[in-house]
Amino acid sequence: MTVHTDDKTATLLASLGIESENPGAYDGTWIDTSGPVIQSINPTTGEPIAGVRTASIDDYERVARAATEAFEVWRTWPAPKRGEIVRQLGDELRRHKDALGALVTLEVGKVLSEGLGEVQEMIDMADLAVGMSRQLYGKSMHSERPEHRMYEQWHPLGPVGIITAFNFPVAVWAWNATVAAVCGDSMIWKPSEKTPLTAVAVTRIAQRVLEANDAPPIFGLAIGDRHQVGKPMTADTRLPLISATGSVTMGKAVGRAVADRLSRSLLELGGNNGIIITDDADQDLALRAVLFAAVGTAGQRCTSTRRLFLQKGIAASFKERLVEAYKSIKPGDPMDPGTLMGPLIDARAVEDMQSAIAKAVEQGGKVLCGGEAIEGDGFFVQPTLIEAKVQMPITCDETFAPILYIFEFDQLDEAITAHNSVPQGLSSAIFTTNVLAAERFLSPLGSDCGIANVNIGTSGAEIGGAFGGEKETGGGREAGSDSWKIYMRRQTCTINYGDELPLAQGVEFDV
Ligand code: UN1
C-alpha cells in the first residue's frame, strides 16, 4: 500500500526514524521480520501512516533468546549504574518529547497536550526509576538465635514480558521498562498492533542509549498478534513475569497462561470508574473534573470516568450545566490546540460505542446529549450523557468511549454501595467539602478501588503512587511506591557468625 503523508508528517516520522515500512522486532539489531505487514491508521483521517512487518514465531524466539542473554549480563551491572542508563533514557526522551508526543497524537488521536503529557509521564518515570536504583532496600531483622544475622535482599528477576494497550502506547511501557531496567531485568515489549509506530520510535530512542553505553540490549521488541507473539510470550518459561495492561478478556487469558506455569503476572485491566458528588461539593471544581475525566482522551483511558453519582439536592442543576458543557465540545483534529476531544481509535470502537448506547436505551436509559457517530473521515463520535439506573447491566461494562452514565442518590452510603457494585475496581473519586463524607469514602467501608481521590477526578494519576486496581482490574500495581518489588526476586538470608548451631523454634537435634 502506498502511504501518502504531508511534508510535516513526513518530517516528524523521519525525525523518529520511522520509514514507510518498518521492522517489527528488535533484539539488539532490527530483525528482518517475516510476519504479515500491518498498517498504522491515523484515526483522525482513517488513512494509513506507515506499515510495520510483524514478528513471526521464529522472530519472537530470536528476541526471547536475546533478552535471556542480555539479562545474564545486565543483572551483573550495579543498580545505580543501571539507573544511569535510565537517566540517559529520560534525557533522550526529553530531547524527543515534542516529536514523540506528536506521534502519539497522530497514531492514537488523543489531543496534542495529552500526547505530550504521555511522554512527560515517561520522563517522570525515568526520573523516579533513577532514584529507585539507589533505593532497592531490603529489611534486616533480628534473629531469634544468638550470633546470627538475618536480612532480605532483592535480586534481578529475569526477562520480563510487557504487553501494552493502544490508549497509552508509550507511558505504560515506561512504567514497566524504567523500573524493570533498574531492577536488573531485560524485557520483551509486545505493544498493541494499533500503535506499532510509537513502539518502533521508542525502541529506536532506547537503542541509541544502550549502544552509546555498550549496554546489553535489554529493551527488546516484538510486534505481532496473539498467535505470533502473545501466546508464545505468555507461555515462555524463560519469562518469570508478564506485565499486561489492557482488557479484562486479554488479562484473563494472560493470567491463566502465566498461572499455569506458576509464574507471576502483573495485571492492570479494565476500569469502570465513578465520581460521587455530594450536595455541599464545589460545583465548579466538580464540573471541570468530570469533563476532563469523562471526555478527555475521548473516554479511552482505563481511568476515564464512566459513572457519575449526583446527590439529589444538586442533581438537576449539575446535569443542566453538564449538558451545556458537553454540547460546547466539538470533536476535531487532535493536533489543533483548541481541540478537547479527538477521534476514537478505530471503526470498531465507534460500533462498540453505538451498541452500548443502544443497549442503554433498551435497558431504560435516557440519552441527555450526544449519542451519535459523526459522519465523515476518521472515527469521531459525540460525547454522550445518559441518565441511568444502577440496575442497568450495561453500566457494569467498560465501553472504551466517551459515555457517561448518570445516577442520583439520597444518602452517601447508598452511593458508595452503588459505586462498588460493578466488577471492576480501578479508580474512584468523591467531590465534597464535608470531611466526614470524604473520610467515609476513603475508609474500609468506602471505595473498593485501587485509587480513591477527593476533589480530583478519576484519571490523570501521578506516577509516584502505585497504579492499579482490584477485582476484575486484576490486582497489579505499576509505576511508583514499592511497585518495583514485583520486578525482583526476594531472598531471605541468615548468617551464623558463631561456632554453635542453635536451631530455630528451640528444636534440639544433637547426635
Ligand atoms: C491507562 O489508561 O491505561 O491515570 C493509564 C491516568 C494516566 C494513566 C492511564 N496517568 O489516567
Describe the structure using short key phrases.
Aldehyde Dehydrogenase, Chain A, domain 2, 37% helix, alpha/beta, binds 2-aminohexanedioic acid, 23 strands, seven-stranded mixed sheet, 511 residues, 14 helices, Aldehyde Dehydrogenase, Chain A, domain 1
Structure in words:
With 511 residues, the protein is an alpha/beta fold. It folds into 2 domains: 7-269 and 474-491, Aldehyde Dehydrogenase, Chain A, domain 1 (3-Layer(aba) Sandwich), CATH 3.40.605.10; 273-462, Aldehyde Dehydrogenase, Chain A, domain 2 (3-Layer(aba) Sandwich). The chain is 37% helix and 20% strand. The chain has helices spanning 7-15, 57-74, 79-95, 97-108, 112-132, 171-183, 196-212, 226-234, 248-260, 283-295, 312-328, 347-362, 412-419, 435-442, and strands at residues 21-23, 25-26, 37-42, 47-53, 140-141, 148-156, 160-163, 187-190, 219-222, 241-245, 264-268, 273-277, 305-311, 366-369, 384-387, 403-409, 424-425, 427-431, 451-454, 466-467, 470-471, 478-479, 488-496. It is globular. The mean pLDDT is 97. The chain binds 2-aminohexanedioic acid. 2-aminohexanedioic acid (UN1) binds next to loops.
